[in-house]
Amino acid sequence: MNADNSAPVVSPRALSRDFSRVLPIYGMPVLLLLLIGFFSLLLPDTFATLLNLNSILGDKVIIAILALAAMVPMLTNKIDLTVGYGIVLWHILVISLQTRYGFSWQASVLLVLAAGLVFGFLNGLLVEMAKIDSFIATLGTGTVVYAVALWHSGGRQVFGELPEGFLLLNGATLLGLPICAFYVLALAVLLWIVTEFLPIGRFLYAIGANPRAAQLNGIATRRFVIGAFMGSGVLTAFAGVLLASRLQIGQASVGLEFLLPALVGAFLGSTTIRPGRVNVWGTLIGVGVLAVGIAGIQQLGGAFFVEPLFNGVTLLLAIGIAGYAGRRRTRVRNAPGKS
């Protein structure tokens, strides 16, 4: 009877297997919560405050949007480096259209968004029609668009009187939080619905997993890949608009520093929530880990080089974790008894 009533014994191997299965899914969100708790305990007067929250949200919203922009082509197993280069031109252009050429701020924003769409289309053509590797293609077009930004600005700051409506795009608050944080939330929900619940999302994931198989199943791979780059271009242009609204000046020396953290956030997104595939909420959690970690270290007195160091180390870890997870899935599929 004692044997019948005794609790089932769980072997250490089973616990290890369950832990290794759960860790990739929830490890990053747990890490984010641990970082928040750790820095809140160490810095209760500065870190665990609404002022600090607003500062983090205001500082990292551009990176979050660029990370989402980079994520879209990654769905198809492509990479878009112009998320870091394009924002340089777009934030300069949206200001110069208003201050030099007399366009209204609404028309300036629409023109820049349209330019981002066209630029993404050109990137897609190079990748799909010219069959240039996406890394090389976007590195080349990114360098060109950066040169255009230098030429357009003459290497000097672009500034002038900007209308209040344009400044409020990134300067307004809602419910006590920066309004730009709600832009990110709205974009995330939209992309989540598209990628997880609509056919286009399934097609993009299928292309990323096996483009040949997707094509044989009737998916217009060329059209969807080009569309992914166009979506990335529009999101990058929108980030440029918000950056210009925040800085109120345009300069070619601003923008490139967003490239690495945006890519890190997108790569981290593939290691959590839906391990092995880039996803919206994983990307935002990845950006959150970067934002909280860097903010906490800086408040503890970290040196000026802490941010790029943290970004670089985190990128290496993210790629390593993604590679390990991929190898582990392959071993599981190839294990005896697995079909």
Structural class: mainly alpha
Predict the CATH topology: ABC transporter involved in vitamin B12 uptake, BtuC
Tell me the radius of gyration: 22 Å
Q: Encode the helix/strand succession as letters.
A: HHHHHHHEEHHHHHHH
CATH class call? Mainly Alpha
Low-pLDDT sequence parts: none
User: Looking across the biggest beta sheet, what order are the strands in?
Assistant: 1-2
What percent of the residues sit in helical stretches (DSSP H or I)? over 70%
Q: Would you write up a description of this structure?
A:
The protein has 14 helices and 2 strands, in the order H-H-H-H-H-H-H-E-E-H-H-H-H-H-H-H. The chain has 339 residues and is mainly α. A two-stranded antiparallel ribbon has the order 1-2. It is 75% helix and 1% strand. Helix 2 crosses helix 13 (280-299), helix 4 (82-99) packs across helix 11 (221-247) and helix 7 (164-171) crosses helix 11 (221-247). The protein has a single domain (29-326), classed as ABC transporter involved in vitamin B12 uptake, BtuC (Orthogonal Bundle). It is globular. It starts with a helix and ends in a 5-residue tail after the last helix.
Element layout with pairings:
Elements: H1 2-5, H2 12-42, H3 50-74, H4 82-99, H5 105-128, H6 134-153, H7 164-171, E1 173-174, E2 177-178, H8 179-197, H9 199-209, H10 211-216, H11 221-247, H12 259-269, H13 280-299, H14 306-334
Antiparallel strand pairs: 1-2
Helix pairs in contact: 2-13, 3-8, 3-11, 3-12, 3-13, 4-5, 4-6, 4-11, 5-11, 7-11, 8-9, 9-11, 12-13, 12-14, 13-14
